[in-house]
Design a protein that fits this description.
The complex is a heterodimer of chains A (239) and B (110). Chain A is 74% helix and 0% strand. Chain A is mostly helical and 239 residues long. Chain B has 110 residues and is mainly alpha-helical. Classes of the chains: A mainly alpha (239), B mainly alpha (110).
Amino acid sequence: MTPETTNSTYWQGVRAGAPFILVLVPFATLFGVVATEAGFTLLETIAFSALVVAGASQFTAVQLLSEHAPTLIVIVTALAVNLRMAMYSASLTPHLGRAPLGKRALVAFFMVDQAYASAILAYEKHPRWSVAQKLPFYFGAITPLVPLWLVFTIVGALVGSAIPPEFALDFAVPITFLAMIAPMLRTAAHVAAALVAIAVSLSLAFIPYGLGLLVAGAAGMIAGGQVELMQARRAEARL
Amino acid sequence: MRDIATLDIWITIVCLGLGSFGLRFVFLGLIGDRPLPGWVLRHLRYTAVAVLPGLVAPMVVWPPATGGALDLPRMTAACVTILAGLVTRNVLVAIVSGAAALYLMLYLVG
């Protein structure tokens, strides 16, 4: 493989992040619409998107606030929905843990599903990238995403409920995530992880506040790890 | 029309902002460059491929937009997205195929 410069991995990151504009724009717009309909001011809506930067958490919080749930419950639930970020953080640590503390803090602040998914896909494809190449890729991936997240939150808050439900914006999120997952299913272990997570998540769907997802995620990760181990042992036995 | 207390909203925003950052920073910030044990790495490889399908599965099977009823257009769109992603290994192609399938089915089924 030819050595790649910092600059080229930054632009690779931009190219990897760019497709997600298609889904992030409706998602951000939808948040602006929903928050405004719940009675949030423009400033509150913007502060939400700028400080929390987590769509699923933001939707959860707005929903529970309008149901007059106690503030503590709102915060805990919305954070539970976002617990997967802790798993992303752990999963990026082997790749970016050696970066300076300030840069790691920036990586953390801007961690969104799409940036994480693009980055981890690229890091697995290019195991020989150094931290100096991996970091720009990550920042490249968030470049087209985070500013638009804010801009279209504002657009949504301004256009309000002008978007009719026929546009089925609700399904923008599942389609994006499925599109990110499918290319990752390279090995039997990856497939096992996904299938186990789906089965557990569906059977625990009655558990509120996103806690079922935590169990499902852990179960899927264990399934993937075990299948990998079994395959490694089988390959060893053949030698 | 607004019946949510302003203070509650700002408390939520500030605490969620701090809490979300904490969740994102916990491992990257605290563990840093200390090497992780092999079994941890082996499981971390499957984080995304486990959590994201787990997150999406209930949205596909019981979409909130239809009040939780199984919905043919959304189910078709999900299957088309996965198939397109598996065949082309291209995220954008998968998204566009899924969206096209969704709108086509919504148009046909109504």
